[in-house]
Amino acid sequence: MTATLKTRDIKPKIASEILASKEELLSGVHAAEIRELLEQRGVLVFPKIDFNDEEHLQFTRTLGTAGKERSGEEVFPISLDPAKSAGVEYLKGSFYWHFDGTMQAKPILASLLSSKVLSPSGGNTEFCNTYAAYDELSEEDKTSLEGLRVMHSAWNTLYYYEPEPEQEKLERFMSVGEIELPLVWTHKSGRKSLVLGCTARHVVGMDHMESAKLLNRLREWATSEPFHYSHKWSVGDMVMWDNTGTLHRAMPYPLDCNRELHRTTLEGEEPIAA
Fold it and tell me: In sequence order, what E strands does 145-198 have?
């Protein structure tokens, strides 16, 4: 196959549609172009491509090494139904801006999410491009952020949706540990992105009130309209995002519905570096 990859930009600073056939995607003929476009655009949408799990995983493997969940799956069901997903407790944090794998030595490179069952209302997935958000900061801001480091932890996320947790649950989340990361990630490519989200607890060495104001201001900036895309799902859509430079969250939907999406990931290829 020598077909040219057809794409359409959805917004100027984030998200493009991939208009290739299922056969082209599974062949891997466009893999290099897709990876390059993913870094440039942050989010790639494959409208109604309708991959089954085997095809979803096959496509993922054309792009790199497929990651595994802690429970061993390569294709992970995203659902709040305990009968369908083993990660319900942690998935409650998905309603808040985050990126995946803050606790890993090399965070997930990308996630690929396919829709299977939609909620009757709500349930969009939102994204923001933290490469673009960093690029458009003032030079004064860029200078002031140099060298700043932030403590990240899973237990900080818990307080977003359960502000008064039972002690056993808090200690279970704390057992995952915490990690100190740069506020600005300098990638091997030389590009820089902001490392934010609901795992970010406080800026090391900064007054806690000033820290909270800074992290909130940067999150508000990074998730504002120029850098933001909200995907309204259709059954069969697949959306892929660059986890190293894109925050995401699910919008609210009825928790007792049968909404279900299936996810694969690409293993991380570089650590977060200042």
Answer: 149-153, 178-182, 184-186, 192-194
Confidence of residue 1 (pLDDT cuts 50, 70, 90): very low
CA 109, 114, 119, 123 torsion: positive or negative?
positive
pLDDT higher than threshold 70 for residue 86: no
- Least Cα distance to 221 among 137, 106, 131, 127 occurs for 137
The pair of structure tokens assigned to 262 is 């299936």
In the chain, the N- to C-terminal Cα span, in Å, equals 41
Tokens of 122: 């709500």
pTM of the model: 0.94
**Residue 2: pLDDT over 60:** no
**Nearest to 69, CA basis, from 111, 123, 127, 26:** 111
Q: Residue 57 — φ and ψ, nearest 5°?
A: -70, -40
What domains can you pick out in the chain, each with its CATH number?
A: 7-266 (3.60.130.10)
Looking at the chain, the number of H-run helices and the number of E-run strands are 9, 15
Query: Which residues have a Cβ under 8 Å from the Cβ of 249 and sit 6 or more positions away?
Result: 94, 95, 96, 97, 98, 125, 126
Give the span between the Cα atoms of 191 and 204, in whole angstroms: 23
In whole angstroms, give the CA distance from residue 134 to residue 124: 25
Q: Is the dihedral of CA 198, 203, 204, 208 positive or negative?
A: negative
Q: Considering only CA atoms, which of 190, 196, 154 is closest in space to residue 172?
A: 154
For the beta carbon of residue 188, count every other beta carbon within 10 angstroms.
9
**Cα gap 123→237, rounded to integer Å:** 14
**How far apart are the C-alpha atoms of 63 and 66, rounded to whole Å?**
8
Alpha-carbon dihedral 43, 49, 55, 58, rounded to 10 degrees: -30
